[in-house]
Amino acid sequence: MANVDRFDIRASVPLCPFTTLRAGGPAELFTIARSATELANVAVHAQSEGIHAMVLGWGSNVLPSDNGVPGLVILNRARRIVIARTGEVVADSGCGFQELFVKTAQAGLRGLEFAVGIPGTLGGALVSNAGAYRSCVSEFLTGLQIVENGKLSWVEPSWMQFSYRDSRLRRPDAPQAVLVNIAMKLPRGVPKQIYDEAREYQRQRISKQPPSPSAGSFFKNVNDKLLAQSLERLPDPLKIAGVVPAGFLIEAVGLKGHRHGGARLGVKHANFIVNVGNATATEIRELAGFAKAKVHSRFGVELEEEVLYLGDWPEFDARS
């Protein structure tokens, strides 16, 4: 392993406490970046030395393998947010997505109301192009500061190749790159309207989300107009939009509340997998695979995970 003595890097650190699903094995190497400068420096070093580096925020949309995660895991605790009166925002990638909403709302800026109740960092939100209620984070982006090929630079938003709940950093051929700082431009709004909208989104989330450890929505919704039109119980607005919630399909095949080991599909909302009894990462992924198979058998569609699987999964890779 290349020299890492200049940084506070530890070996074989369990990742379970750093994920909202409370499951998964250890990182081969682990460090904490407490500022954007520390994050950039350790990323530059790792890339220059040929060490595979992965950034972990609040762990709300990931599932590390029980077998562990090779290379270096950087826990991102860089949280600085700077807001200009003109609506320009520059924020560290490790700041809380909900915290960013609160601070921008306090400054009279709208657009991030949907972030209320999303338990993750801004960097993680960008990797998955997080969104809800017909909004997504990428629409406000003006630039990104990244470390790629051992160099720190600013790039255009197009570099991320955003699509629905996706970016190039989620894909199997993702470049070795680390998001350090994010620049955004938000429009001005009326404070009462901003907070009223956010409260309504929060109310809806509370009514759906389980109290047990979870990763939020486990699967992406399905965009399929023919399927949407064929489902009698699907609300008309979703039929018109051609959007079928993954939870609707999982519930339709009778798996709402289904349990496998310590993992269970949500009782309130079937598109959640919750850890109700010291579930292993393997049990969680097996339950996800079971739900995917049942939905595919009944409806002919392949559910796609929002959650990212990290590390070595040889038993699952062999099946694909």
Shape: globular
* Number of separate helices: 9
Protein structure class: alpha+beta
Strand content: 25-35%
Stated plainly, the CATH topology of the largest domain is called: Uridine Diphospho-n-acetylenolpyruvylglucosamine Reductase, domain 3
Low-confidence stretches: none
Order of helices and strands: EEHEEEEEHHEEEEEHEEHHEHEEEHEH
- Determine Rg (CA atoms, Å): 20 Å
Mean pLDDT: 92
Return the domain count: 3
Main beta sheet strand tally, sense and closure: 5 strands, antiparallel
Task: Report strand order across the widest sheet.
Answer: 6-7-12-10-11
Number of strands: 19
Per CATH, the architecture of the largest domain is 2-Layer Sandwich
- What is the first-to-last residue Cα distance? 30 Å
Helix content: 25-40%
State the name of the first-level CATH class of the largest domain.
Answer: Alpha Beta
Question: Which terms would index this structure?
Answer:
320 residues, alpha+beta, Uridine Diphospho-n-acetylenolpyruvylglucosamine Reductase, domain 3, 3 domains, five-stranded antiparallel β-sheet, four-stranded mixed β-sheet, 9 helices
What would you note in describing this structure?
This protein is an alpha+beta fold. It folds into three domains: 10-76, 2-Layer Sandwich (Uridine Diphospho-n-acetylenolpyruvylglucosamine Reductase, domain 2), CATH 3.30.43; 81-191, Uridine Diphospho-n-acetylenolpyruvylglucosamine Reductase, domain 3 (2-Layer Sandwich), CATH 3.30.465.10; 210-317, Uridine Diphospho-n-acetylenolpyruvylglucosamine Reductase, domain 1. 28% of the residues lie in helices and 26% in strands. The chain contains nine helices and 19 strands. The strands form six sheets. A five-stranded antiparallel sheet has the order 6-7-12-10-11.
